[in-house]
Please model this.
Amino acid sequence: MCVQKKAVTVTEMAKMVKLTRARFYQLVGSTFPFPIYDLATKRPYYPPELQEACLEVRRRNQGIDGKPILFHRRGRETAPANPKPSRKKTSPDDNRHQDLLAGLKSLGMAGVTAVQVEAALKELHVSDLEKDQGSMLRAVFLHLKRRDTSAPAPTKKDDQHD
Model:
């Protein structure tokens, strides 16, 4: 017998058989034996003989009902089901473009892309050292507005199909 404690909680028993507490509770009664309840505290616990029975179920992959059971690894020991997406390291330029894009969006230019912003900054010869964020936003906004208004508007002839 490898049990060391006189009594263990349901949570401790679940850890001993390498299951989550929720999964352990699902299997109590069919696969694992019910715990004993202390009449004074009304808390469930597993005495040494039931601890050994639970460990034997895990070792043999056979429940107390005689049916075989296959166990998976405990939730925290396996890879997370929804791994966190890796964050792409951003440079200060990316952050600058994000701020500019957000500012342009708030000014009604929601369709502007980071590529267009970069092109505008190059055409305007703007560097981080020359202008602050507000000045850059203003310059890019005006530049893009001028480009949009200088493009010929579609005429009725262009809209008609032959």
Notes: Residues 92-148 form one domain.
